[in-house]
Amino acid sequence: MKIISKFLTVNQYSRPGRRLAGCKAVILHYVGVPNHSAMTVWNYFERDCPRDKHYSSTQYIVDLNGDVYQFMPDDEVAYHCGSTLNDPASGRIYTDWARSKFGYYASDPTKASPNFCTIGIELCINKQGNFTEETISSAIELVAKLLTEKNLTTEDIGHHKLVVGWKDCPLPWVKNPDLFDDFKYKVREKLGVLL
Ligand SMILES: [Zn+2]
What tens digit of pLDDT does each residue of 56-99 get? Predict the structure, then answer.
């Protein structure tokens, strides 16, 4: 796995430069547009978000060929899983899963956000809307590395929909939840924690 540092310029919309309040989970996403490369997404965060006053970003993204790009130090806040809309199941902004896991950071959206205590990873999708083998293989390695560094377990792997409920991200795993279970199994395998 190759990690390429390509840090965004510090700016209020995609790299606020704020320190993460520890890391409680790693949250996976997909890039909504088929065949978009990591650098296309970098340009979006670097240029479009400040221009359009749109809050969005991630600490990591895994390209179609498996290259990992890091868009900011992973102890800085990125805007990847905050919300102002209600989760349909709980009727609250954040899901039961998020509120039990993040506590204060998912309790009052006017004061805090799960963005303040999580690391985001975007996964590119191919023309067919699927993750490539290379993307998944690097993502397994990256997540295993982050869990080890941040003293977390595979219970601390989440995805966007698990946090906000209404957002169908990452779509390939929302459509087929077995693929998410399989991903977590492979991270456990990588960490050597299978019983
Ligand atoms: Zn997402």
Answer: 999 999 999 999 999 999 999 999 999 999 999 999 999 999 99
**113 CA to centre of ligand 1 in angstroms:** 15
- Structure tokens belonging to residue 58: 């991630």
How many angstroms separate the CA atoms of 45 and 61, rounded?
12
Residue 195 pLDDT exceeds 60: no
Distance CA 122, CA 58 (A): 7
Spatial strand order of the sheet with 3-5 comes to 3-5, 68-70, 60-62, 118-123, 25-30, 157-159
pTM of full prediction above 0.85: yes
The predicted structure's pLDDT at residue 193: 80
Residue 174 tokens read as 């929302």
CA angle, residues 174, 106, 93, in degrees to nearest 5: 60
Q: φ and ψ at 120, to 5 degrees?
A: -100, 140
The protein residues having their C-beta less than 5 angstroms from ligand 1 (an ion) are 29, 160, 169
Task: Say how many Å lie between the CA of residue 52 and the centre of ligand 1.
Answer: 19
Please give the distance, rounded to the nearest whole angstrom, from the Cα atom of residue 128 to the centre of ligand 1.
18
The model's pLDDT over 8-48, given as tens digits with 9 standing for 90+, comes to 999 999 999 999 999 999 999 999 999 999 999 999 999 99
